[in-house]
Design goal:
About 20% of the residues lie in helices and about 30% in strands. The protein has about 240 residues and is an alpha+beta fold. It has a single domain, classed as SOS response associated peptidase-like (hypothetical protein yedk fold, Alpha-Beta Complex). It is globular and about 50 Å long.
Length: about 240
């Protein structure tokens, strides 16, 4: 699963990534830099998400992490839907409507996973080796309470891990390459879904970080820095 991640700037982007974002009329680096850096995004918090405005252009806005389907009685279900497993995604009641027309991209500088015995788990930060930006595949929904006010929420899709699986965790966010971003946002569901299986993991590094990341109250740059005397492990 993916239960914590970070988004901070300025983030480097390849020429290919910039070209794709320009076609969508989206200045993602500027959008991230205009917001506060986040080093410990936790479920139920609001974070940046990219959604389709129409069939060619995208918007960036804040959504609540933990998808709340439109039919939910209240928002509590969102804490159980921070991730959506790739397997059977299109058939699951909570996700099948969003798969068809409410897919999103979740910008991240890296994400956290824990390893070890219960009560003494060590957190690790996993990020691109070049310090670039990742875009996770996600889904979003709109829910309305008794007052009729809309609340936008999202979930991060997870799949089988790349090299990270044998070392840290048996699941990981689906990381989409730039050439897949537009189709994931704008294409019909039958075109978009296969992109999840074709996603190639970028070159990543991971290293242990302070256990303070375990509390969502903590959010500062030290949480993504290696512990003293640690080397970066290449995934």
């Amino acid at each position: 699963m993916c239960g914590r991640y970070a988004t901070y700037g300025p983030a480097s982007l390849s020429r290919e990534a910039r070209d794709v974002l320009e076609r969508m009329e989206l200045d993602l680096s500027s959008e991230i830099n205009q917001r506060e850096d986040r080093f410990n995004i936790a479920p139920t918090q609001r974070a940046l998400v990219i959604t389709a405005r129409d069939d060619q252009h995208a918007d960036v806005g804040l959504c609540r992490w933990g998808l709340v389907p439109s039919w939910a009685k209240d928002t509590s279900i969102g804490t159980r839907l921070i991730n959506a497993r790739r397997e059977g995604l299109a058939e699951k009641p909570a996700f099948r409507a969003a798969v068809k027309k409410r897919r999103c991209l979740v910008p991240a500088s890296g994400y956290f996973e824990w390893q070890g015995e219960k009560g003494n788990k060590q957190p690790y930060f996993i990020r691109p080796a070049d310090g670039g930006l990742l875009l996770f595949a996600g889904l979003w929904e709109v829910w309305r309470g008794e007052d009729g006010e809309p609340m936008r929420s999202y979930t991060i899709i997870t799949g089988e891990p790349g090299k990270v699986g044998s070392d840290i965790h048996d699941r990981q966010p689906v990381i989409l390459a730039p050439e897949a971003w537009e189709d994931w946002l704008f294409a019909p569901g039958d075109v978009a879904l296969p992109l999840l299986d074709a996603a190639n993991e970028p070159e990543l590094v991971y290293y242990p970080v302070p256990k303070a990341v375990g509390s969502p109250k903590n959010d500062d740059p030290s949480l993504v820095e290696p512990l003293p005397d640690q080397t970066l492990d290449l995934l």
